[in-house]
Amino acid sequence: MHIIVAADKNWAIGRNNELLVRISNDMKNFRRLTEGNVVVMGRKTLESFPRGKPLPNRVNIVLTRQQNYDGKGAVVVHSEEELREELKKYTEEIFIIGGESIYRMMLPYCEDAYVTRLDYGYEADTWMPDLDKEEGWELAETGEEQTYFDLIYYFTVYKNTACKEF
């Protein structure tokens, strides 16, 4: 299992249920990695997508406590146990795509994290755990410096040396 996220220098990931910034190359990288695979998210993440619809060309799984939630074509589960059972059905790669509570819950079970690190501190209300301080996580790769207008960012990969079985 993998995490994929864009995080600023304080590990902030969003504000008012929106991304901090939309970078075309980051979106292309996200699409390249997740298409044809399984994406797992919380309800608010699904609702942040255009028209609240699941991402095309992927199996979308939404974890929510709302019992009668309409996932508009996404598979809806209501607990960690239900999610575990659902994920057993797939052989494709599994990507955890947010939000904060889903990242925190699934962090111990992910073998790696694809993190677009933004070299800026945004005003935010949602954060990813700081992988530089999380036990068992280490920075494995840092791509070349990229720029989006005056924003500097890097594609990085973190590895979890203490990955647990889900």
TrEMBL record:
Q: In which pathway does it act?
A: Cofactor biosynthesis; tetrahydrofolate biosynthesis; 5,6,7,8-tetrahydrofolate from 7,8-dihydrofolate: step 1/1
Using the record's annotation, list all stretches that form the DHFR domain: 1-160
Q: Does the keyword Oxidoreductase apply?
A: yes
Keyword Translocase listed: no
State the reactions this protein catalyses.
(6S)-5,6,7,8-tetrahydrofolate + NADP(+) = 7,8-dihydrofolate + NADPH + H(+)
Q: What GO terms describe the biological role, i.e. biological process, of this protein?
A: dihydrofolate metabolic process; folic acid metabolic process; one-carbon metabolic process; tetrahydrofolate biosynthetic process
Tell me which CDD domains the record gives: DHFR (cd00209)
Q: Which UniProt keywords apply?
A: NADP, One-carbon metabolism, Oxidoreductase
- Write down the EC number: 1.5.1.3
Q: Which residues cross the membrane?
A: none
GO MF term set: dihydrofolate reductase activity; NADP binding
Domain of life per record? Bacteria
Checking InterPro entries in the record gives:
DHFR (IPR012259), DHFR-like_dom_sf (IPR024072), DHFR_dom (IPR001796)
**Kind of enzyme, top EC level?**
oxidoreductase
Q: Name one Pfam family in it.
A: DHFR_1
Q: What does this protein do?
A: Key enzyme in folate metabolism. Catalyzes an essential reaction for de novo glycine and purine synthesis, and for DNA precursor synthesis.
UniProt family annotation: Belongs to the dihydrofolate reductase family.
Protein's UniProt name: Dihydrofolate reductase
- Organism field: Candidatus Anaerobutyricum stercoris
